[in-house]
Amino acid sequence: MDYGAGSTLVTTTRAHMTEGTGQRSDRGFNCEKKMLRQQIFSLVRKMDDGEITARDFQDKLFTMGFEIPPEVLQLLKNFDSSGRADFKQFVQAFERYLESRNQEVSKK
Known about the structure:
The chain is mostly helical and 108 residues long.
């Protein structure tokens, strides 16, 4: 079994179970996707701490080549008016978006 760079982050047990059934597993995030998630959540924390503005947040996501989902744009508008970013709401919005993108890719 190859656990090299770019492999999906799953437990050894899950990998063996999947291999045993002959089914390919698309669950989990590969290393690149996991890094993207961590970078996004780090930016949310920085925005909430006042280290960057909502505009900086958007610019950094665009620089990373990430399209901002509509739900997150609404949260950014709320942040602009209140000055507070609800980290949990941002995480949930991004998780839903990343999961939907992951499902779209796996259908192709």
